[in-house]
Specification:
By secondary structure, this protein is of the alpha+beta class. It has one domain. The protein is built from four helices and four strands. The chain is elongated.
Length: 151
C-alpha cells in the first residue's frame, strides 16, 4: 500500500467492507434470547404472585390484630362492653380504620360482628380477596375474641 492510499484511508475502508456483514445479531439469536426470557418469566411469575398474595394475607392478619387491640382498649375504657361498630374506634383507638391490602378497601366493617352478649366479637376480612393463598376460604382471615386469630 502506498503512502497516498494510506492518506486517503484506503486501509480503513477496506476493513469496513470485510466486517460489514458481521455487525449485530441475527434474527434467530434474538428469538432464542426472547424465548429464554419468556421461559424464565413463565417459571417465576406464578411463584411471585403466590408470594405476594401470601404477604397481603399476613398484612391482613396484622390489621385484624390491630383492630382487636383497639377493641380491647375500647372495652377497658367502657365497662368491658364492645362497640356496636368499628367506626367507634376512630380517632381515639385507631387513627383510621385499616384497609385490606388485597382488596384495597375497608373490608373489616362488614366483617365485624358483635355477639348477642356484648362481651364477645368477631372481626373478619369479608369477601374472597385471599383465594390465591392455598387453604384460605371466603371471609378469612378471622379474629375471634375467645380464640384469637383463626386461620
Amino acid at each position: 500500500m502506498t503512502m497516498m492510499e494510506r492518506a486517503r484511508g484506503y486501509h480503513r475502508r477496506h476493513d469496513m467492507r470485510v466486517y460489514r456483514g458481521r455487525r449485530g445479531f441475527t434474527l434467530i439469536e434474538l428469538m432464542v434470547a426472547l424465548l429464554i426470557i419468556a421461559l424464565l418469566l413463565a417459571l417465576f411469575l406464578p411463584h411471585y404472585w403466590q408470594a405476594r398474595a401470601r404477604s397481603n394475607y399476613v398484612a391482613c392478619e396484622q390489621n385484624l390484630r390491630n383492630i382487636a387491640v383497639a377493641l380491647q382498649a375500647y372495652a377497658n375504657d367502657n365497662g368491658q362492653l364492645y362497640p356496636s361498630g368499628l367506626q367507634a374506634l376512630t380517632p381515639d383507638y385507631l387513627v383510621t380504620l385499616p384497609t385490606c391490602p388485597s382488596a384495597g378497601a375497608n373490608t373489616y366493617l362488614a366483617g365485624y360482628q358483635e355477639s348477642t352478649a356484648p362481651v364477645d366479637y368477631t372481626v373478619s376480612c369479608s369477601g374472597s380477596h385471599h383465594t390465591l393463598v392455598p387453604g384460605v376460604g371466603v371471609n378469612e382471615p378471622r379474629y375471634e375474641m375467645a380464640e384469637g386469630l383463626v386461620p
